[in-house]
Each structure stands twice: as structure tokens, then as C-alpha cells.
Amino acid sequence: MPLHDAQAFVLRTYKLAEADKICVLLTRQSGKLRGVAYGARKLRSRFGSCLEPFTEISLTYFEKDGRELVSISHAEIVRSHYEQAAGSVVAGAAMSYMSDLCCEFLPDHEPSDTVYRLLTATLDAFGEHADSHALVRYFEVWLLKLAGFYPDLRRCGRCDLPTSADADIWLSGDGAPQCPTCSSGRGVRVTPAVRSTISRILAEPPARFAERPPPADHLDRLAEFSLLIIRHSLERDLKSFALFNRLRRDTETPQP
Ligand SMILES: [Zn+2]
After folding, report:
1. Are 141 and 150 in contact (CB under 8 A)?
2. Domain total in the chain
3. What is the CATH number of the domain that holds 203?
4. Which of 103, 198, 205, 218 could bond to 214 as cystine, CB 3.0-4.6 Å?
């Protein structure tokens, strides 16, 4: 049974049997994997609070031949965003949605240092006054792009002509970009302003993007665009997408 050391984010956890836990981990060294932590739900577990979502840990695990689940033998906290997620419903919903995107769109056992750094930098940018709307949209664009699901907006998907940076483009139901002629104005409209927001996201680190966020309606259009890609790729919606957007709007416009 080979032992492995790794650094990882806990993305999700599930209860198993009486006292055990299954964790979905994003490891830096081996990509996404599922591990079981025996006894992790016991009162005096040797894992303590290591295996809570949004915690970065260093861990040791071993693989058994032919088993899908690895076995986690040791874990220590590197840093935790769990309290932050628990302390703010909006930040908590944002992080849950980010976890869901990782769980759904990243392949198992395919390490990507870029994805790992994206998650680290985005979680680090969640501070007391951080714009969670901007950070979630930032993460969404990058994750879908790195996972290979983000369309190339520089060419029309139908006539293959380059799209003009100054003109609207439209996305058909399958997320393919179309020029004004091919789309006849049907589909989700992507304005030049939204495209320049996407360019900023691809050029800036998350903290800087969230410090000078674009107007909320640009971010809303970006969310529509991402929703289209998610829906088309998964053939269903992610509940955490809608939950984050609802909680965010509720806190932005307090009821009298
Ligand atoms: Zn066209």
C-alpha cells in the first residue's frame, strides 16, 4: 500500500457509517480524489477540525489496489476558511458554489497547479469587505476556462469570422458565440462591456479584480453567460448557483 503526502483543499464531506467521513479533496499533487477518514466523526477524533470544507490541509493517505476511495491516515491544517464561510451566509454560499464547480467540472486524478492556485488565491481574497459577487464571477470564468468549457469569444461559432470587440455577440443555447448576422439577435447577449470584464478577469489576480469590481449589472450578465455554459455542460442546474445569487441579492437590498 503506497503512502502519499499531499496538500489539499477539502471540497465536500459526507457521513459514512457510524463515525467515518468521506472527503472530496482537491490535491495539488494528484488532482481531485475521494478519501475516507475512519473515525473522523468521533468526539475525540485524531483529525480534529481538519476535515471541514474550505480547509487547506497537508495529509498522508494510502491507496488500496482497485479501490476508488483512498484512506486518509493523517491530516493537519495549513489554513482554514471554514470559520469565514460559517460566519457569513453569503461567503458560505459563495464557497459552496465554488466547491460544487470544482466537484462537477474537474476530472478525477488530474493534477493542475493552476487550478490549485486559482482556488487558493480566490479563497484568500475573501475578506471582511470583499465583493463576493465579483470573486465568484472571477472564479467561475477561470474554472470553466481551465476545465475546457469556456467558449472562445474571438470567433463566431457558425461562420468562423473573427468577432469585433466593439460589437455585441450572442450565445446560442449550447453556449456557442455567434456574430450579429448569424444569431439575428437571438440568444444571450454579450456586450462589449461584459467582454472587457472577461478580459480583465483573465488578466488580473482575484484580489485586484474584486477591489475595483465592474458594475453589478455587468457581473449579472456574466453570471447568465456562465449559467448557460453550466446548464449545457451538466444538462442540469447547480442549486448552489441559484442559492448564492439569491442570498447575495437579499443582503444587497435589505427589506424595510
Ligand atoms: Zn457568424
Report:
1. yes
2. 2
3. 1.20.1440.120
4. 218
